[in-house]
Amino acid sequence: MTEEFVQKNLEARTEAYLKDTLASGLLKLDHNFPMKTMPNIEPETPSDWWGKSLSVLNLEFFQRVLTAVKSKGLKQDMISKILINYTHNSLQGLVIRDPHIVRGSLLDMELQKKQRVIVEAMVSLLPTQSRRSSVPMAFLSSLLKTAIASSASTSCRSDLERRIGLQLDQAILEDILIPANSYGNNHGTMYDTESILRIFSIFLNLDDDDDEDNRMRDESEMAYDFDSPGSPKQSSILKVSKLLDTYLAEIALDTNLLPSKFIALAELLPDHARIISDGLYRSVDIFLKVHPNIKDSERYRLCKTIDCQKLSQEACSHAAQNERLPVQMAVQVLYFEQIRLRNAMNGGHNQIFFGTINSQFPQRSSSGAGSGAISPRDNYASVRRENRELKLEVARMRMRLTDLEKDHVSMKQELVRSHPANKIFKSFTKKLSKQLNSLFRINNLKPIGSKPNAESRFLFQRRRRHSIS
User: Fold this and answer.
1) Of all helices (H) and strands (E), which one includes residue 382?
2) 386: buried, middle or exposed (CB in 10 Å: 19+, 13-18, 0-12)?
3) Alpha carbons 278 and 276: distance in angstroms, whole number
4) Which of 419, 440, 463 is a domain's end point?
5) Residue at which a domain ends, from 401, 419, 437
6) Closest CA relative to residue 348, chosen from 376, 309, 320
7) Of 24, 106, 131, 317, whose CB count within 10 A is highest?
8) Do 188 and 301 belong together in one domain?
9) Which residues form a coiled coil (predicted)?
10) Is residue 346 included in any domain, yes or no?
């Protein structure tokens, strides 16, 4: 059996087999071992993973088991996987409602109570909060949606909102489209905008806290953090701003959404969070189209959130012809377009506005390699053509203002005419004129074709001669 008799005997073959089996089995064991030697290899969860067996436990015993293994130093990603698996199996038959169940009935209230107990228990067992948490964003979003639908406690919802706000730059649109609770929804809105407002506020407050922590850095690091578009901090802010613009465009289609809630979300981000405002302009335009009866003050406040200096040329052209926008904004858009054309004619040396946007978006600037490919004559001709178009737009705006003034005057006249006292006076004068006409007809009644008498002709001639003389 040993190598003393012949090579590759049973002992050597058994040892080789055990080495191969052990090496392949180590990768599929419990994933608590830190894989420092293989950082790019993610362990796969086998079908007979021990964490799946915990889903058969009741909620109280599951909490005790998971608390015990957490105290033994179980990794946070393993805890997240166990919680996701248990929550999926526990809520699978509760979240999908039976259409025959009447809302507000005893059975419906019992289902909500079960959901609420499970969600609050899962939130209490989540790993510690951090900006790079091991809990997936989709799982946190589903927990928050279930917590709102089941009327969970305020502390539970606040915990989930803070966790989502910590890693909001990893979210997508489906993660923040949270349906509103139908029980406490008096306006009949589709989405819960108040929770989203708190989530974005948490992210912005964390950003401010980071600014306080980074005050002790040197100026070069501060310039990288704030000014560089490739820095992690700036890239996360840009992701969140795009996410908010997409969310605003989605909720703008809700006809029951109050303008005050939409305006609060539109005014939330600071000015430096958006490099270009086309997404915000699109969402505002959709909201104004869906809500045509919005007040003028709310319309002006909503359009005030759009920075006209950060609109692209296509957005400026659309805004100049958009009748849903206030006249002040259209004039402001035309003004900034005129300044941009003037800078283009001057060779791009006067950077009055756009700041660093021209360097980040070469297609919107007039200097650099983009302008070098076009001859000065062609560039001047295109600028003159755009200038003529802008003049036409200004003329159209003036015509619109004139029409509005005429409509205003006509409306005032109609209001004056429709006044009750004016109606009485008008009827009185009409009756008086009829009586006077009847009197004149009785005194001066003559047959048709008869000639005027000499006296009347004489009086007329005398009056005429007197008037001439």
Assistant:
1) helix 376-417
2) middle
3) 6
4) 419
5) 419
6) 376
7) 317
8) yes
9) 380-414
10) yes
Residue 191 sits in the same domain as residue 296:
yes
CA distances from 338 to 113, 317, 332, 342, 351 (A): 62, 12, 10, 6, 13
Contact by Cβ (8 Å): 367, 343: no
Residue pair 249/176 in contact (Cβ under 8 Å)? The answer is: no
Same-domain pairing of 340 and 244: no
Q: Which of 175, 156, 154, 180 is nearest to 164 (CA)?
A: 175
Alpha carbons 192 and 177: distance in angstroms, whole number? 8
Neighbouring-strand partners of residue 191: 179
Asked if residue 43 lies in contact with residue 27, where contact means CB atoms within 8 angstroms, the answer is yes
Farthest CA pair distance, the chain? 166
Q: Which of 244, 232, 299 is nearest to 268 (CA)?
A: 244
H/E stretch holding 378 reads helix 376-417
CA nearest neighbour of 56 among 44, 65, 45: 65
Domain span including residue 296: 167-306
